[in-house]
Each structure stands twice: as structure tokens, then as C-alpha cells.
Design brief:
alpha/beta; eight-stranded mixed beta sheet; 29% helix; 31% strand; flat
């Protein structure tokens, strides 16, 4: 009976450790990082089309994640998509004339916001807005344009 109890305790400990490991993997894969909150500041940008951009999508500069999208809404004045981003305080020297583009990871991957650095000496501050933006390329629009061009070239 004693040996059976030891085996059951070891199996229970193994199952518990496996469940904890799966939870940690799920948190890492889902980019859930609110439990390790870093000092940050907030900026925004207006886009004509955000495609499939989602809240919590990364904001990258030169391939390095420097922030996250926190909110997406329609701007009541311009009726464009307003993307609000939370940037890590480590990157608080971004020039005012920096630009933001909505890019795609790979051919059909998730979308993210890419920041291109400008040359102005004044930096973006909490609440600033990026004026230079490039909207997302929508795959359906590109296919439609290709089909129109292809059908026009076939008529000749």
C-alpha cells in the first residue's frame, strides 16, 4: 500500500507540473504580458485602412518589438481608423517625423505596426500622434488589381 501511495503522489506531481508548463506556454504564445508591466507612454496614428490589425499586435522598429497596439477605433473627426499604441519608455527618443506602416509577418501572417525613424530633433511624447502613415495592403484588393490588369492584357 505504501508503494502504491508513492506512485500516486509522483503521478499527481507530474500531472500538476505538466498543467503549469502548458499554462506558461499558453501565456507566452498569446503575448500576455500584463503581469510584467513596464513603464510606457502612449501615441496614436490615423490610417485609411488597418486591414486585419488587432489589439495587442506588436509595434516594431527594425524588427524589434518596442510596443503594443492597445486600442483601435474610428476617429470621429476624420472617420479614419485611429490606432493607439503603448510604447516602451526605453524608446522615448523617437523623432516627431517618424512614420508608421501596417505590415504583415510573412505572406499571410499577422499584421503589426512598423515604425520608420525620421530625422527631426523633437521627440514623440505621451499623447503625440504620428502624422505620416501607410495603410495596410489588403490581399483581396491586390488580387483584384492583378485580375483586372491580366484581363486587360488578354484583350489585346
Amino acid at each position: 500500500m505504501k508503494r502504491q501511495a508513492k506512485i500516486e503522489i509522483w503521478v499527481g506531481a507530474f500531472v500538476l507540473m505538466s498543467i503549469l508548463a502548458l499554462v506558461m506556454i499558453a501565456l507566452q504564445v498569446s503575448n500576455f504580458s500584463s503581469w510584467k508591466e513596464k513603464p510606457s507612454y502612449q501615441i496614436s496614428a490615423l490610417f485609411d485602412n488597418i486591414g486585419g490589425l488587432k489589439v495587442r499586435a506588436p509595434v516594431k522598429m527594425s524588427g524589434v518589438v518596442i510596443g503594443r497596439v492597445t486600442e483601435i477605433m474610428v476617429d470621429p473627426v476624420s472617420f479614419k481608423a485611429k490606432v493607439i499604441m503603448k510604447m516602451d519608455n526605453t524608446y522615448n527618443e523617437l523623432p516627431m517625423d517618424s512614420s508608421a506602416s501596417i505590415l504583415t509577418s510573412g505572406l499571410l501572417g499577422d499584421q503589426y505596426v512598423g515604425i520608420e525613424i525620421g530625422g527631426e530633433e523633437e521627440s514623440l511624447k505621451d499623447g503625440s500622434q504620428i502624422d505620416l502613415t501607410q495603410s495596410a495592403l489588403v490581399l483581396e484588393d491586390l488580387i483584384g488589381q492583378f485580375l483586372v490588369k491580366f484581363s486587360e492584357s488578354g484583350d489585346n
